Amino acid sequence: MSKAFDSIIIGSGQAGPFLAARLAKAGRTVALIERKFLGGTCVNTGCTPSKAMVASAKVAHMAREAARFGIQLGGDVRVSLAEVKSRAAKIVQNSRQSLGNMLATAGCKVVYGQARFVSAHEIQVGDEILRGEQIFINVGTRAAIPKLPGLETVSYLTNSSLLKLEELPKHLVIVGGGAVGVEFAQMFRRFGSEVTLIEMKPSLMHHEDAAASALVAELLQQEGVRLRLNAECISFSKDPDGVSVQVGCEEGDTGIHGSHVLLAMGRTPNTVDLGLDAAGVKTDSSGYIPVDDQLRTNVAHIWALGDCNRRGGFTHTAYNDFEIVAANLLEGANRRVTDRIPARATYTDPPLAQVGMTEEEARGAGRALLIATRPMAWVSRAIEKGETFGLMKAIVDAQTKRILGAMIFGVGGDEAIHSILDLMYADKPYTTIVNAVHIHPTVAELIPTLLGSLKPANPQEEK
User: Would you call 61 a catalytic residue per the annotation?
Assistant: First the structure.
């Protein structure tokens, strides 16, 4: 006999628990199914622990740089990975507990175990069958494991298993130059490991603004990370002291020898074991669940939220998925995914923040553009903090005067860029804040100056 609920939510990432609590407070009976830990990737193996470790790595870096600021420290800077992990683990545990308390207060039933559809309205968890009138899938993604020659013969790490290391790697070889790869490369280099970063393409973070991509490479090299780009023929083999990664296509390539290898080559959705066929829910060739503009799947009473729907891939977009669904179901709203402006940040130090289009995307659209750039070395706050590395950029539609995109790669850029993002949401011309008086000394105070220096750019011009 099945237990009936108004709403069943599968997965407890950044959309699931908040939607569960909101529906329960609206008077619905709600069950949330979680296979392991509350919080999903962000809380357990993503943002929360990794950004806590980024903070520890920055402290180690600043300790080594203390003399630049007139501070004399005795002895070498030594990093205890166990203590770094312990600090991060406490933050993770607090986040899990907070979510558990929220769900309990709201009156949600939490069921732990693997969920699998047995029909369009029924889900099996262990020996239990749960029946839901409405079902919301929030199962997230995990690290992709590509089929590369020799990979099955060696031990390798992902972003999840890397967090379980007890000692610092002597030489960490990272395969993949996206956000995860560059964050961990800088982090472990600052902890004291040798680091080599391998990327198949000619540049790191190739989806980002080209100028930012070049600066990321420069930053990592300045800190001692070795880069190997254009690695078109990656393969693996055992090494007496770890792993050897071959990166050249020619026979006789000696490869790169490391004590540990981290795979940072994208994500794959956690949908393969959900029994979606039994519910009639369609997936694409990669296992992601296609949804409409209000996050419904092809089955009318089933929604997919968060990373598994391929409509965002970030914590903030998953949370916004919850907001869209809750507003539409409970408030009669008509919110849509396409109302969302793309926004993201990579947490290198300094961080790289991007909203809207990159310059390359805007040029590809064939629009008449206005573009402005300013080095972070012109920002008083950056100078005072001794962190002048980086660049600001804004791209504007020359006809409408609306901001199409902006990038800040520099200290405080992940916060300051929101003044641009909010102007974009307000759908106001850039001139709205050209004469705004921002507080000195801040990073954001240069934004009016940046926008006031826009110059025409030929949309057909090649970079």
Answer: no
